[in-house]
Design brief:
There is one protein chain. 50% of the residues lie in helices and 17% in strands. Strand 1 and strand 2 form a beta hairpin. With 252 residues, the protein is α/β, with parallel strands linked by helices. The protein is built from eleven helices and ten strands. Strands 1-2-4-6-8-10 form a six-stranded mixed beta sheet, sandwiched between helices. It has a two-stranded parallel sheet with strand order 3-5. The protein has a two-stranded parallel sheet with strand order 7-9.
Length: 252
């Protein structure tokens, strides 16, 4: 964890929140906690008009839950605590009064798909394939599921959730509404992100906050729902199936 981080930078009314983990930008509990806090802080800062969420590196955008932490979970209470981290990040993004632009530069797995779904406007490269791998390790995309289903619909979500070993390409993700834009490389992607962020930075904060409430209408119960889902994952992660599956993945 000494190399992992979450950092925020404010420039011209735009806060960029960047996270990194040496294991393909996976998400251990500490990173989830820091992400949630960074989003809340930026959302409450009057100087901030728009937020960009990104990860570091040039390969995966986010590999999802940290296998090291999953395998270390020993009780249902510990499982609930870990998976509630994902719930807290999604709820922080949902209730943040500022628009969040997602910079999706590479593959998204599991919780990474959840992050891409929970931003308000995702801009991606053609290498940003997606996979909900949870069922393959005996869990299921319970916590991120509401965010993913809200963005791409029940049919596409069920396809991702059921065939947990199949990568869907970025065009599939754009066609189903996960990505708003798709670009051939990071240069074009970043140019589009800069353009949109600058436009929003000069737009009415009050209007954008009201728009966000409308876009997320019907999710007011997610504080409770996502914690209930976290409890399901926290119980299933203790199964022999999951522990054996995670060990197999770690040795690949």
């Amino acid at each position: 964890m000494e190399l992992a981080y979450v950092k925020s930078e404010l420039h011209n009314s735009i806060t960029t929140i960047e996270f990194f983990h040496p294991q393909s930008n996976s998400l251990p509990g500490k990173i989830l906690e820091q992400l949630s806090e960074a989003i809340q802080v930026a959302g409450n800062e009057n100087k901030v008009k728009v937020i960009i969420l990104k990860s570091a590196g040039e390969k995966a955008f986010c590999a999802g839950a940290s296998f090291d932490e999953l395998i270390a979970i020993k009780t249902k209470e510990e499982g609930l605590e870990f998976f509630s981290g994902f719930a807290n990040v999604i709820n922080a993004m949902r209730t943040c009064p500022k628009f969040i632009i997602g910079r999706i530069h590479g593959k998204c797995v599991g919780g990474g798909v959840g992050l891409a779904a929970a931003v308000d406007y995702a801009i991606a490269t053609e290498s940003a394939e997606v996979k909900l791998s949870e069922l393959a390790v005996g869990i299921g995309p319970f916590v991120v599921g509401p965010a993913v289903e809200r963005k791409i619909g029940a049919s596409a979500f069920s396809q991702l959730a059921i065939d947990a070993s199949l990568w869907r390409n970025a065009e599939w993700a754009r066609g189903n509404g996960l990505y708003a834009e798709l670009h051939p490389d990071t240069e074009f992607m970043d140019a589009s992100i800069d353009r949109l962020a600058d436009t929003l930075a000069h737009s009415s904060p009050e209007a954008m906050a009201e728009m966000k409430k409308i876009f997320w209408k019907g999710t007011e119960h997610w504080d409770k729902l996502l914690m209930e889902r976290a409890a399901i994952s926290g119980r299933l992660v203790l199964s022999d199936f999951t522990r054996e599956a995670i060990e197999k993945f770690k040795t690949k």
